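User: ok so my PI wants both of these folded by tonight, can you help

Assistant: No problem, let's get them done. Here's the first:
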Amino acid sequence: MFADRAKIFIRSGKGGDGHVSFRRELYVPNGGPDGGDGGRGGDVIFEVDEGLNTLQDYRHRRKYAANDGEQGGKRRCHGADADDIVLKVPEGTVIKEAESGKVIADMSGDNKRQVVLKGGKGGLGNQHFATATMQIPKYAQPGQPSQELWVNLELKVIADVGLIGFPNVGKSTFLSRVTNARPKIANYHFTTLNPNLGVVDLDGAQGFVIADIPGLIEGASEGVGLGHEFLRHIERTKMMIHVVDAAGSEGRSPVEDVYKINAELEAYNPDIAKRPQVIAANKTDLIYSGDSEDPVKLLKEEFEPKGIRVFAISGATGDGISELLYYVSEQLGKLDRSPVIFEQEYFPENELIYENLPYTVEKEDDMYVVEGPKIEKMLGYTNLDSEKGFAFFQKFLKDSGILDELEEAGIQEGDTVRMYGLQFDYYK
C-alpha cells in the first residue's frame, strides 16, 4: 500500500554530565579539580533517500531516539559523543510539528539533509569552575537535556503538472500514453489509490514531470473519500491538466464536472485553484456524430472565454495529445519552474526551551541558589561568554519570573546567585 503520511516520536540524545573529581597522585595529596566534560548527545537528522517513494517504513515503527552522550571522567577525560540517528525519507517529505501543524522542514529542492533535533551539549567538568576564591569546586555542569517531539510526515509529490478530474475519466490511460509511467488501469468507479509520476519528453521543447493525482470526488476538500490525502499532492504543481469525460460515458455533464472539481480545489486551498489550468476533453473517440450537442464545443464556449484552453483528445487513440503537451510545455516556460518549497514555521531549538519546567529559588548561607530542569536546559543552550548569549540569559531570568522570585526572597544588590556551576552578583 502507498503510504504518504505517518506520525512518529523523535528524541535527541541528552548531553553527558560533567564530572567532579580531584587529582590524587603520589606527592600530590591535594591536587586541583580534574573532572572531564560530558559528551554531546546524538542529533536527529532527516535525509533524502532517492530510492524511497513512500513513508511505509514509518507505519511500522513510531519511536526514534538518538543515544545520550557519555559522562565525563577523571583526569580531564572527555566523555564520548553519541552517534546521530539518521532517518531516511523520500524527496518531497514535509515534516510538521504534530500539535500545531507548523512546518519544521521540507525535504525538497536543495534540502537533502537537515538536523531537526539537536543533541544536548555535554556539561562542563569541575575543572572549569576553579577560581582564586573557589579552588575546590564540588559541582559540575549537567549535560544539556534532550529534545523530543511528535511530528507528522507528509509526502507531497514533486511534479510540474498535476492531472486532476473525477475517477474513471481516463487520467491513468493518458499518463501511460504520454510518459514512461505504467499505472494500473481498470474501469474503477472509486479511484486509483496511488499518485503516479511520469516524465514527458518532447522533441524540440522543454519536458516536464506530470503526476496523476488520484481521482477526486465531491466532498474531497472535507476529507470525503480520502480527499485530503489526495489533494496534498497538488500543492507543489505549477499548473493542472483537468481531464474530463467528454463523451459523458459515466452519465455526467463534463461542464459540471469541471466546476465541481474546481470548487473542491477552492475549498481546500484558494491559491491552488488560481493556478493555470488546461482542459483535456478525453474519450472523444466515443462521441457519436449524431449527438445533438458537441460536448467539446460546449466546453470551449464555457471555459475558453475564462482563459482556460480546451483540447479534444483521446487517451485510447492518442488523437490531440501532442498538441496539448506542447501547449502545456509552452505555458510552463512562462512560469517559475523552481520547486514549491514550504518555508520553516516551527523552530524546535527556540520553541522547546520555553517549556513549562519547574525550578526552585532558595537561600543557602550567604547566597541565593536557583535550580531545576528549567535552569539546566537554559544553561545548556546558552553561551554566556557572548554578548548575545548573555542578553538572552538576562531576558530569560526576567520572562520566566526568576528575578521576581529572587526579590521576593529578599535579595539585595551585590548578593551572590548560584545556578549550578554559574555564580554571579545580583544588580538591577
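One down. Here's the second:
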Amino acid sequence: MFADRAKIYIRSGKGGDGHVSFRRELYVPNGGPDGGDGGRGGDVIFEVDEGLNTLTDYRHKRKYAAVDGEEGGKRRCHGKDGQDIILKVPAGTIIREESTGKIVADMSGDNKRQVVLKGGRGGQGNMHYATATMQVPKYAQPGQPAQELMVQLELKVIADVGLVGFPNVGKSTLLSRVTNARPKIANYHFTTLNPNLGVVDFDDGDGFVIADIPGLIEGASEGVGLGHEFLRHIERTKVIIHMVDAASTEGRDPVADIYAINKELRAYNPEIASRPQVIAANKIDAIYEQDDSDPIRRLKEEFEPKGIRVFAISAVSGQGLNELLYYVREQLHEIGTETTVFEPEFFPEDLSIQNNLPYTVEKSEEEEGVYLVEGPKIERMLGYTNLDSEKGFAFFQRFLKESGILTDLENAGIQEGDTVRMYSLEFDYYK
C-alpha cells in the first residue's frame, strides 16, 4: 500500500566532553592543563529527494540518530565532530512533533534542506579554566546533550489541481491521456490506492501538475474506508476537478455524487471546499440519444448558476478535454501557482532543560564552608548556559530558585559567605 505517513524517533549527536589532563614532559615538572575540547555532535537533517514519492522506507526503520562528538584529548587535541545524519524525503513531506501534532518543518517550495535537530556543542577542556588562583583545574565542561524527538512524517502531495470523484468514474483514464503519468487502470473499485501525479503540458510550455486523488466514499471525512489517508493530499491543490459518470453506467446519480463529495470536503476542511471547482462530466460517448433526460443539461442547470463550470468530456476518446484543460489553466493564472507551504509551529531549539534529572547537594568534608552541587541536572544546565551574558546569568538565578537548589542548600546548613561549587563554577552564597 502507498505509505504516506510514518512515525520515527530522531536524535542529534551529543557534544563530546572536554578533557582533563596536564602536560607531562621531561624537564617540565609542573606542566599546565592541556585538556582539549570535545567535538560537536552531528545534526539531524531532512532533505528533499525528487526521486522519492512515498515514505515507505520509514515504515521499516523507526530510529535515526546522528553520531556523538568525541571527547577531547591530551595535548590540546580537539575531539572529532560527530557525523550528521541526512534523511531523504519526498517533496511535500510535513514533519510534525508527535505528541502535539505541531508542524516542525514543511519540506515544500524552496525548503529543500532543513536542520531539524542541532547536535550538542562540545565541552571545553580544562586548559580553558586555568587562572592565576586556579592553575591546576581538575574539571572540564561536559558536552551539550543531544536533542531528541518523536516525529510524524506526513506526505501531502504537491499538485496545482486535484482530481476527485467516486471510484470508477474515469479519473485514472483521464490522467493517463492528458499527462505523462501511467496509472494502473482496471474496472473495479479502489484500484487506485495512491495519488498519481502527472504534468499537463501545453504548446507554450505553461503547464500544471494534476493529482488523481483516490476514489472517495461517503463518510471519508470521518475516516471511513481510506478517506482520511487521502483527503490530506488535496490540501495544497488550488483548483478541484470533480469527475462524474454522466452516463450513470453504474447507476450513480452524477448530481448527487458532486454534493456527496463536497459534503466530505467541507467536513474535512471547509477551506478546501471553498476553492474553485470545475465539473468534468465523463463518459458522454456512453450516453444514448434515446434517453429522455439530458444529464449534461441537468448538471449545468444545477451547478453553473453557482459559478461551477461543467464540461462534457470523454476521457477515452479525448472529446472536450482541450476546453477543460485550458479553462483550468486560466483559473490557476488568476489564483497564482505558488506552492502552499505550511508555517512551522514547533521549534526543537526551544526545548527546555529537563527538570527530572537528578542532582545532589552536599557539604564538603575536606573544605570548611564549601557546598558541592553535582549531578546530570547541573551538567546539563552548565552546558546550555552562557553565564558571561546578562540573559544567561538571569536564567542561572532563576534555575537555582525554581529547581529547588537554593532550598536544598539552606536545608544543608549553608550560611551567608559560604562557597557553592558546581563543577567549574564557584560563587559565594548571599540571600
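The CA atoms of residues 115 and 258 lie 43 Å apart. Confidence is low (pLDDT under 50) at residues 182-192, 352-356. Good luck tonight!
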